Amino acid sequence: MVLSRKSQSCGFAKAGVCAKDMLETTETDGYPNINEWGPLDEYDERVHSRRLRDDEHQRNIVQNLQDLHDMLKDYHPPKVVRPSLESLRPRSLPFLSSIFHRNQPKKISTEIASNLPKGLYMYGDVGSGKTMLMDMFYDTLPHSVTSKTRIHFHNFMQDVHKQLHAMKIAHGSDLDAILYVAANIAEKGSVLCFDEFQCTDVADAMILRRLLESLMSHGVVLVTTSNRHPDDLYKNGIQRASFIPCINLLKTRLRVLNLDSTTDYRKIPRPPSGVYHHPLDKAAVSHAEKWFGFLGDPEGDAPHKATHRVWGRDIEVPKASGKAAMFTFDELIGRATGAADYLELMKSYDAFIVTDVPGMTHRDRDLARRFITFIDAVYESHAKLVLTTAVPLYQLFMSTDEIDEALEGSRKAGTVKHAEEHEEVDDVMRQMMDDLGMNMNMLKNSSMFTGDEERFAFSRALSRLSEMGSQECVSCTEHNDSD
Prior knowledge:
alpha/beta; 5-stranded parallel sheet; about 40% helix; disordered N terminus
């Protein structure tokens, strides 16, 4: 059994009890109602009482906690459905039964619901405030969260292996016990908080992806702290290539926040999250605004509309500041724009924030082509790109149905697992595509692209988005720091 750790005082030991615990259920002493008390309220109270110094970087982190807190107020997790033991055994049926498909156990789905709030992955060095921030989040969870679990990750994995071992002893080694154990854990809490997420053991590495994916499929929201960025987990470990899908799952399904406050004398600190955000939830709005404030110059050049002239016609920029421009996808790509327009914008701006980017299917081929052209212009101009998207990057140009359709065509052609056809995609994106069976041969079975040139452009766009979103690329292109 995975046990919840009893909620402790939300803050440093010397800070005493959480301010929420001191409140009545009605508004008193200027505090909001206890049911509305969240991480940001807790942070403000500590600053007001001088238990904490107001730090803009840390406040940005707490805002992300608050965004998730607010989403959880309206979140209703599905009822956990425990799989039957029979459904977890390998299918080995008599010949006639296999022909008529009689009594075959239903395949267990680990598909993650689209309404699952995106969790958080907070990483930083010792002393960066990981425990305090987790305390703030966990102890101020809204009352709508009726079950929650917090546990040190090492203890969690020990308990998982014990449960797996007990299942094997009781029911045989051919049982796929991970799905059963995941259901057990999901029943204990719809919000699962890990302290000190890490992976140093090959036994953990081999099961983590399926375990976490199964938990999310049951509607469990994950929040974790760690000393390392997901890309640095299990580095140099045995069979690390098999762990890459878990890294991609963490980066896709959790919002990765850097807690370390770098030495930066600009008045507006760099946002703690990466440059890409999905889905289009409440946090997406603050994500875009924070990056616009960071990449622009709101104090020296207040946000304003701008107009640029290209070949006798005007290009409207809805929001500009300094060298940063902000558009919705429809404002930038939905119009009849092309390469000349994008190149002209590159002359005036070195940072672009594009919000509300949809997933594009074969019905949106023209939009996809224009967006790929824009990505190429940004990349070749060494500009910065911030996106809020409805879907993960790898689904931008193909829906899940189209991916499944193309995969089926590739399976029939026997080309589903060969990576040599998409060498233009970087290692992380290649692993993501390999995990889905996506490659250039597979794309030939997709109705999204009409020729090899378009397929190459798609592959290149994914590669460039991945590169521009990397830690190294974002860090090395921060502008005006030495001005």
